């Protein structure tokens, strides 16, 4: 079963119905402030779960978005170590949920496409656990940050914002490309269907609704 946290512990595994998880994008950031970004394919009538060991009092954020497939929606469910449901949404295109771990243990979150009988989805999620460690730890310091250190902190924060924007636009580009390819396939089929009037209408620059 997929488990997040550090790269050696993470592994792709078969879903409940033996569907192979295809990981398209994976970034694992080890350390006290960990984050996992994964894009994977979720077949029709399938469910895929992920697990993360979290310490009590740690602030976490789960964000997800359906990039391709059907109506771009998926079910999402998050549970604590005792099986209590912390978050549950049905047929969501995208969402974000922030919580603070109330106890130590393994937290579980699942994405389900069980309501779909023939359309598979491509799902992206970003699971952030804890805060990023400070660039310059304050322990054992007797003076404030130097001008150079302050500049480094500012640049570091700006680069994190750039990464967030890059991820956002990369997802929008992938979703837009998928819709364009689907539309192209439909138009190509429509033009090859033999409907002369439809072809003439298309040549004139408009499509009947």
UniProtKB/TrEMBL annotation:
GOLD domain location: 47-129
Q: Where in the cell is it found?
A: Cytoplasmic vesicle, COPI-coated vesicle membrane; Cytoplasmic vesicle, COPII-coated vesicle membrane; Endoplasmic reticulum membrane; Endoplasmic reticulum-Golgi intermediate compartment membrane
Name the GO cellular-component terms.
Answer: COPI-coated vesicle membrane; endoplasmic reticulum membrane; endoplasmic reticulum-Golgi intermediate compartment membrane; ER to Golgi transport vesicle membrane; Golgi apparatus
One GO BP: protein transport
Give the residue range of the signal peptide. Answer: 1-35
- SUPFAM superfamilies, per this entry? Supernatant protein factor (SPF), C-terminal domain (SSF101576)
What is stated as this protein's family in its record? Belongs to the EMP24/GP25L family.
Name it: Transmembrane emp24 domain-containing protein 7
Q: Which organism is it from?
A: Moschus moschiferus (Siberian musk deer)
